[in-house]
């Protein structure tokens, strides 16, 4: 077996004896323990970091929390976090009205250039930054949120409180790298793999509710779906 594989296996075994928050041995110590070059250890540590098994904390490294698993469903991020016993939170980045370009206008069934509400928020789980969410809503339908909605709370709960019910949604997820701005907001780096989610939600009458573009840290979030036989 190759040395990188053996080192990775040894680090996996080491992780099995530790719990969340425990300090993880530094690169120099691991290289001396296993008698390999620091570059070999560095690569294995980088893989564990990308996978969300360990995380940097200050000048050291600790065992990370398990990833927040989000359901691919019409449930909100808040519901997914609470289901895993995590405390959801949000930080408002921007909230403004913009003229909808042609593709967004078509997705929201409004006229080209019509004003739409754009809400950008950082998503938190137990205080950790896990995602950056950009939501577009038809202004003629949800303009009243300016006076009633607290952007640090659940948007889906606020939408449902108006009497609107979610009927269906189309989602696409792809792997991307963050821009410098996105990485900064997520307290990450441009080298960390991210998961970008695109969602268009409709109400029970088939009328568009929202278009969402969200970026999630690949080391802190995973998605799951429940599948059934369609026959």
From TrEMBL:
It comes from the Bacteria. Residues 1-66 form the HTH gntR-type domain. SMART domains: HTH_GNTR (SM00345), UTRA (SM00866). InterPro entries: Bact_HTH_transcr_reg, Chorismate_lyase_/UTRA_dom_sf, Tscrpt_reg_HTH_GntR, UTRA, WH-like_DNA-bd_sf, WH_DNA-bd_sf. Keywords: DNA-binding, Transcription, Transcription regulation. CDD domains: WHTH_GntR. It holds the Pfam family UTRA. GO terms for biological process: negative regulation of DNA-templated transcription. One of its GO terms (molecular function) is DNA binding. This is GntR family transcriptional regulator. It comes from Mycolicibacterium arabiense.
